[in-house]
Each structure stands twice: as structure tokens, then as C-alpha cells.
Specification:
By secondary structure, the chain is α+β, with helices and mostly antiparallel strands. Helix content is 19%, strand content 40%. It has one helix and six strands; from the N terminus they run H-E-E-E-E-E-E. A six-stranded mixed β-sheet has the order 3-2-1-5-6-4, with no helix packed on it. A hairpin with a 2-residue loop joins strand 2 (34-36) and strand 3. The longest helix has 15 residues, at 3-17.
């Protein structure tokens, strides 16, 4: 890899740090636990939209990562 290619790689990596996270689908494992990708999250790891009354195992939800350790459940997906 030449110097220009190395510089481009560095620019790509640095630029991706400021990109916002994407919306993701998660699945409820129980009424208090969801799975996002390979990660299981409990109530300490997410906030939930007040209009979502209850989660059941198997429910699909739309989530958004706001920090490394915190997600927001936006809505149920039907």
C-alpha cells in the first residue's frame, strides 16, 4: 500500500467515527430483555418508548444506539 492509499484508509476510519449509528431491528427475548445482533440487553441497557406497554418474547422492535452502552426502543415492528 502506497502513502496515498494509507492516507485514504486513515481518512475513511476517522470519517466513520462521526457517522451516526443506524436503526436496527432487535428481538425481545423476554419482557425485559432484547437481543440486538449478538448482544443481549436488559433494562439497564435501553430506554423504551412510553407507548410500548409490554414486550413479549419474539416481538420485533426498532432500536437506535445512542451511546456505546445505551439504546432506545423506538417502536414495535409488526
Amino acid at each position: 500500500m502506497n502513502q496515498y492509499e494509507q492516507l485514504l484508509e486513515i481518512m475513511k476510519k476517522m470519517g466513520s467515527k462521526t457517522n451516526p449509528e443506524e436503526l436496527q431491528l432487535a428481538e425481545a427475548v423476554s419482557s425485559t430483555e432484547i437481543q440486538v445482533g449478538g448482544n443481549k440487553l436488559d433494562t439497564d441497557d435501553y430506554k423504551i418508548n412510553e407507548n410500548i406497554k409490554d414486550l413479549k418474547a419474539g416481538d420485533l422492535v426498532l432500536v437506535y444506539k445512542i451511546r456505546d452502552d445505551l439504546y432506545i426502543i423506538i417502536c414495535k415492528v409488526v
